[in-house]
Amino acid sequence: MRTFKLVDCWIQGLMILAAVPIAFSNTNFDGIFFGAYFMVGGWQILSVILHRIFYTPQHKSFMRRIYLITLAIVAGVLLASITSFIIWALYGLLFFSPLMAVYYLITCVVEAKKLPEVPEPQAIV
User: How far apart are alpha carbons 38 and 58 in whole angstroms?
Assistant: First the structure.
């Protein structure tokens, strides 16, 4: 589990670091901007689902619970706004979701640090 968690943290961090220059250098919001945006978000949603399936309660932190509640509220607002103010909700997400991405990365790093070290296998001599 620790290896998966560390790989997950590294991939998230690298994706976020790669997405930041794309976001600030791309002023016309073409496919590259949204591609980077959805790659980070897609990876993190996949990570949330895998954590939900495979991790036991002692591996989850209070920060994860806050993230899941926030994610549920965001999904609820999007579903509720489909007919009325969807464009405003999506516009708000354009600025709010990067904050959620960084918060989720911090959550994963904190949880990874709490996991016990797995001893390396010893060679038989």
Answer: 30
User: Residues 30-62: pLDDT tens digits?
Assistant: 667 777 788 898 999 999 888 888 876 666 788
Residue 78 belongs to some domain of the structure: yes
pLDDT confidence tier of residue 88, bands split at 50, 70 and 90: confident
* Cβ contact 47:12 at 8 Å: yes
* Among candidate residues 37, 41, 47, the one with its CA nearest the CA of residue 4: 47
Domain of residue 103 covers: 2-114
Q: Residue 30's pLDDT is what?
A: 64
Q: What is the mean pLDDT of residues 63-83?
A: 88
121 assigned to some structural domain: no
120 within domain boundaries: no
CB 51 within 8 A of CB 64: yes
Backbone angles phi and psi of 115, in degrees to 5: -70, 145
Closest to 23 in 3D by CA, of 86, 94, 89: 94
**Whole-prediction pTM:** 0.79
- Domains in the chain: how many in total? 1
